[in-house]
Records
---
Amino acid sequence: MQNLELLLLIFTFGYLLFSRKINTKVKKPIILSCLALFFVFHLVFNGCRWQMIPTYLLWFIAIFSALRNSNNVRKPIVNVLRITGLLLFAGISFILPTILPVFELPKTTGKFSVGTTNILLETKKEEIITSDPNDERTMMIKVWYPTNDVEGNKELYIDKGGRSGFAQKYGLPSSTFNYLDKIKTNVWENAIIPDESFPVLIFSHGYHSKANGYYALLSEIASQGYVVFGINHTYESTGTTFPNGETRFFDNEYSNKILENTWHIIEPSMNAFQTAQTFEERHPVIKESLKNYFVKDIIERWSDDIQSVSEELQNWNNKGFFKNKLNLNQVGVFGHSRGGAAAGEILLGENNIKAGINLDGVQWGQMVDTCFQKPFLYLSSDWPENHPNYNKHAYINTSKADFYEGIIKNSGHSNFMDIPFMVHVNAINEAGTIDPKLAIEITSDVIVSFFNKYLKNENINIELLSSKYKKLNIQKR
């Protein structure tokens, strides 16, 4: 809760709890004035939000109680029930705005401030997700980049499409996340990019997620001197808002269609993990699932999206907003979850991408039959011991270049995202017990150090990061 929200709750609850005594010692106008003053201060400095509705109801009850100004002695049972009810209501009033807080994003630590802009990418490739045979693949790219221009407007946290799509994902009203207007970003809208050339990173988000669900991580990386092109994979992100105002949400019908009748492909590998087989005994079974499970098609499709962005970099560097600002000799790729697997997939092909990182994604697809020819890093959350480790099999051949594996201790799958800041309940947000800001700090440090080494050719020992952070274990295979 914000400070004035908490003060409003404490004062209102305190008055209701001790109203009979207060009413005998304090005049009604003073009580009403104090209640009104706390409420006005809250509205002026915090603004209202729906999470505070239980507190507002308590406040109205307090106003009614003050107007009555009753000093009647209550029966003991009535008093017990009243206090119990107040405690329960006050508990709800405290928990709701605490679970869904007005949070503060971590401040960036790089030498640059961060600007952002949006790019519409229209490809000539077929859009297979929709039923229209003439539909072509179109995506919105959100770009975070270094800037020294801090004179404009800071960007609103998560656009309308992202908010509405996130609400739809959990069956909530589209207005549920309007309170995110109160979140202050560290990002300047359409700020001027400095007159120099920066290395480029292409980012792919997780399934049913969105590029701007990673503000903390991506803005920190941009502040370190990288231009980050964040892809929103249309119809498989929570929601994308296009320049004409159209919003395209996650396509549940298509998602269910590609999932249907696929259990028989994954079941043998799940059973193999549960039995006491050796790695060598279960590898052939796991290999078949990695190569044939439907998720590998998503990975390949997203890899193609990354390729589309990669192919456009030269055009963006020749004209427009990013003219002569992109160092196309220093291009890397990274992603989270299925986006991380897509980053691994694209690195297996012929392109100008020099190195890649997978953040906690299972590497479905062809990787199990081949190896990387370029530097690669897999950074995992702290999965339980009984969690099926598909990547141990997928990365069996590792790389002919440098290959790293790392783990952030006490982290969960969402600790690479903003979700742990948005939702303060681990059972819901899929985060670990690690402090969310520390998880972002470690992740961004690993990413920047890796790309500084393999894109900028800086002399960095990646494994020494394990000494810097007690929560990090990283080694080269």
---
Amino acid sequence: MKDADYFSRIEPLKEQLYRVAYLYLGSESAAVDAVDEAVYRGYLKRRSLRREAYFSTWLTRILINVCLDELRRRQRETPVETLPERAETPYDALPLLEALERLPEDLRSVIALRYFGGFTLAETAQALGLPEGTVSSRQRRALQLLKLHLTDDEEVSP
């Protein structure tokens, strides 16, 4: 894949990639950094892409790996009390974001790609390297857990 082809295919995907990264990392700056890193890693490995038809799922898989690397790095750090990165927005206050963070990683990945990344079931399966049936059952399970978390939150809150 030529440099110009690579970068022309990146532009339409940036918003989708950002949404996925934001769901994983929970902050705007971390999501932007993750997308930049994924684009860079993809550029370095662009010749390893076997089928150009799978470009978006290939790049999303790279992004997921970047996000997981960042989450592992965060776990190794000693927590320090700091000021919040930015003011809380109404979206951040939604119980949905908190419920999503409670999901196990394998279920959150499916929800991130299907509902925030706009991927089809087949594209999600390919991006995660899983059979479609597994993705479908994880999606059902994640939605059940989200419903449970959101119902519990509503009962507790006045």
---
Amino acid sequence: MKEFIYKIEPEEEEERIDKWISNAFHSLSRSCIQKLIKEDNVFVNGRPRKASYRIRPDDEIRLLIPDAAEPSIPAEEIPLSILYEDNDLLIVDKPKGMVVHPAPGHYSGTLVNAVMFHCKDDLSGINGVLRPGIVHRIDKDTTGSLVICKNDKAHQHVAAQLKEHSVTRKYHAIVHGRMTEEEGCINAPIGRDEKNRKRMAVNEKNGKPAITHYKVLQVFQDYTYIECRLETGRTHQIRVHMDSIGHPLLGDTVYGNRKTKFALEGQTLHAMTIGLRHPSTGEYLEVSAPLPDYFQHLLNIL
């Protein structure tokens, strides 16, 4: 059971307790918040409160969040496209449509299931049962390079590089519209979309710093082929940033959602290159994943 205690500041506006929790804990779903309230795990000034309670200045909020029961995750013999492997790291080329790690209601067919079969017991345990070896992730419909850590030392080493933004991460994408500038930088904070909690958005008030560098590789009649280099790694960063400047990713039904004549499964985005200092040797290691067939075929059509 995790316990969180907050003191409402005098300048904070009055609002419903369930809304306040939603804004304070982005990872909690609305149904989860309602369950916490119903089970008397939300207290204000020592008393359990209903969802309709409106917080006031100087209120003390105490939130109890039960520990999640983590199920055992089965190893599954799913083919992997391996780009690099040694005793510390496994770098794979994730296919389109594959989820990286299990989640409630979806415990099989993920990259983790496949990696557990391939690596047996050689995986970092830092991120728990659901995410063994996972130090970063890419979206279900994004393809390309993904690093798996085989031990805790490697995990800590790679995580530190991600935190200090020293990992090279280059993505290739096709966006709507003809881009006129050959290259550019988008520096705009990203946070939860206040109008739709399932989306991310450029959020100047509550967002975290996010920087994407891009350069044009080829311009077509109605589309542009670009390379993006991430300086930070926020959720859906490239998708949000490109949409924010009027060039959403082709095939992205969440951001932009423009009509297209092509039959696509999600955004046209590929994690092309990843580079980092090796956790044991300290030498720079860079690996690239070839463009998937659907992406190359689309470029040929354009």
